[in-house]
């Protein structure tokens, strides 16, 4: 057990030692503009060189509500220079991405992945006590940047579609041994559905919601009351529901 704990600590320290950063995390391309391009800046703040490869993937929403990536889908639409590189210690490098696909009249989205190539964590000189065994692990950093292909003539159109007071079951707590607690009494929450009726994605920025009672003064929910909503992306021709306490 002591050996496992020591290994876990060493793993965390080693993983942080290979970290690198990418900016920006979101980039917009106009697929109808000539030579539409973006520059990504990679930074290595460590004392070790970091090998990186850049890939393209098409995101979609799975049945469980989580994003699924179709690796390689869209790689013919982008020219990436360079597509593999080694970041020297304590340095920055630029990666240029150009859209080389055909013009389109609708919005589309992709992911450009910046992946650290695997590094094997092992210590060949480490002596193990009798009965203990060693293993190696591969630690990589991955950055999934969001790419929007948005023609310049498209716009967003965000609206509050519905809001109501609802009772939401409290989640159960599941423990490591597989047991779980029963949820407590349902919580009364405000359910708000925001729709985007536009043809491009939209961000919920600085929302303010005013609710008018049948009789009496209106209730205003300001930005500080809507932190759970602010900053969310609503895809084109779609809607998203939020619950606020």
Count of folded domains: 2
Q: Mean of residue pLDDT?
A: 83
Biggest sheet details: 6 strands, mixed
Structural class: mainly beta
Concise overview:
Helices cover 7% and strands 45% of the residues.
Q: Which features does this protein show?
A:
single chain; six-stranded mixed sheet; Immunoglobulin-like; disordered N terminus; mainly beta
Structure report:
The protein is mostly beta strands. It folds into two domains: 2-149, Sandwich (Immunoglobulin-like), CATH 2.60.40.10; 158-244, no CATH class. The chain is built from one helix and 19 strands. The chain has one helix at 2-17, and strands at 20-23, 26-29, 37-44, 50-61, 67-71, 78-81, 84-87, 91-99, 108-116, 119-121, 137-139, 142-149, 158-168, 187-196, 202-203, 209-211, 219-221, 233-234, 238-244. The strands form six sheets. Strands 2, 4, 5, 7, 9 and 12 form a six-stranded mixed beta sheet that branches. A hairpin with a 7-residue loop joins strand 16 and strand 17. The longest helix is centred in the first third of the chain and has 16 residues, at 2-17. The radius of gyration is 24 Å and the shape is globular. The two termini are 43 Å apart. Mean pLDDT is 83; it is low at 1-18.
């Amino acid at each position: 057990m002591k050996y496992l704990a020591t290994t876990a600590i060493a793993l965390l320290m080693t993983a942080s030692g290979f970290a690198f950063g990418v900016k920006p995390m979101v980039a917009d391309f106009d697929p109808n503009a000539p030579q539409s391009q973006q520059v990504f800046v990679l930074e290595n703040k460590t004392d070790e060189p970091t090998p990186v490869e850049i890939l393209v993937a098409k995101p979609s929403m799975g049945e469980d509500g989580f994003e699924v990536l179709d690796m390689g889908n869209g790689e013919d639409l982008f020219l990436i220079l360079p597509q593999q590189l080694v970041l020297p210690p304590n340095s920055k490098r630029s990666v240029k991405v150009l859209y080389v696909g055909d013009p389109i009249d609708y919005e589309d989205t992709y992911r450009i992945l910046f992946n650290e190539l695997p590094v094997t964590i092992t210590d060949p000189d480490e002596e193990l006590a009798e009965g203990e065994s060693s293993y190696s692990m591969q630690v990589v950093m991955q950055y999934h940047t969001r790419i929007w292909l948005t023609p310049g003539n498209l716009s967003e159109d965000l609206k509050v579609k519905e809001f109501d007071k609802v009772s939401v079951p409290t989640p159960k707590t599941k423990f490591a041994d597989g047991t779980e607690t029963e949820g407590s009494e349902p919580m009364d929450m405000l359910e708000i559905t925001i729709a985007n009726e536009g043809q491009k994605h939209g961000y919920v920025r600085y929302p303010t919601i005013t609710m008018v009672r049948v009789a009496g003064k209106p209730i205003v929910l300001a930005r500080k009351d809507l932190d759970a909503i602010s900053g969310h992306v609503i895809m084109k021709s779609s809607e998203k529901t939020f619950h606020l306490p």
